[in-house]
Predict the structure.
Amino acid sequence: IPSGSIKFVNWFFKAQELSYPPALDYPTELLPYLNRQVLRTTLSTLLASWGPNGPSSPLFIKPVIQKAFTGFVLQPEGWVTQLSDIDPNQEVWTSEVIPDIQSEWRVFVLDKRILDIRPYRQTFSDYLNFMPSEVALLNEMIEAFTSAPRSYSLDIALALEWVKGCGQY
């Protein structure tokens, strides 16, 4: 079972002539850990709900299809320009903006055991932010994820308060 970046895992499946596993996105069992509401919709549905004035507050948007575009925070001012290159029929995940993110991490899991925890931006200070109590919470999330495949990753963020999200594989 490969463990690594999405690019590496996709390369492995292609090299082995295997079908890609489905994206995990936001598994039902982990929704209580998100500490925010996440909505799957289309960009055109969002546009219709906003009307001509656009969103009233910042909104995090990322594509349902991996790497269709880079996720970003949509601002109420300049929203037309931010969305101009995205197909209105594109399926997206949206959520409120997570305030005060200190660092972001990818947790690699195999057979309900943490193999590794890596920061997205590898700075020394990121390593100082991860505490045993957070590892205990990760293990709680892993146990709660009863429909998990053997190997996957959790993408998480450390904020002033714990905020979690699930990643691919």
Observations:
- The CA atoms of residues 28 and 119 lie 25 Å apart.
- Residues 162-169 have pLDDT under 50 and may be disordered.
